[in-house]
Amino acid sequence: MKKMLRSSFSVMMMTALLCNFVVFAQTANQSLVSSPDYLVDTGAQSTISPYGATRPGTVYDVSKNGAYKFSGVCGNGGPVYTEYLIVGKYTYNVSVTNDSSSPGALTYRIYNFSSNDELVTSGTVAPGKTESFTVGGLSQTSKIYIKFTSLGSGLTSLSGSIG
After folding, report:
1. 136: which residues sit within 8 A by CB, 6+ positions away?
2. Greatest mean pLDDT among 8-22, 42-56, 68-82
3. What DSSP state is assigned to residue 162?
């Protein structure tokens, strides 16, 4: 009888341990999903790197595919990057809009990946405003990307294009 009781107890303990593990994994995944530092895709030709953790690695040719459009949210101290290294032109028309109405400016920095991440230009966009400008002096094969950072304490919505 004691042997059967010990065996039953062992099975119940193993089941309890396995159930706790599954609950722990679900709780951890929920916290990852709720993180707000990401940008969303606005179409097949526009993507921003989720969570902005790394610089882009894939090339997008605007001379073949048209303007690269982006839209999304950044904030909480972490930068976000365009998903692609942009190529295909000597001069680009860039538009960046800070779609937020709350205080907190949005900064952008355009880097030339082909020249050891040389800073090409940078600026700040006030809430509710749009900055449109031209970036030139590049070769058609120069790979550029944009880094966005929110200067406010909350989240900053942004949108724009480069083409």
Report:
1. 90, 91, 92
2. 68-82
3. E
Would you say 61 and 90 are in contact if contact means Cβ atoms under 8 Å apart? no
Amino acid at 112: N
Q: What is the predicted pLDDT for the residue at 39?
A: 37
Q: Where are the beta strands (DSSP E) in 1-105?
A: 39-40, 58-61, 68-75, 80-81, 84-87, 92-98
Paired tokens of 157: 């919505």
Q: How far apart are CA 118 and CA 99, in angstroms?
A: 28
- Is the CB of residue 87 less than 8 Å from the CB of residue 139? no
The share of the chain scoring above pLDDT 70, in percent, equals 66
Per the listing, tokens 């860039």 go with 94
CA distance 124 to 110: 12
Q: What is the pTM of this model?
A: 0.68
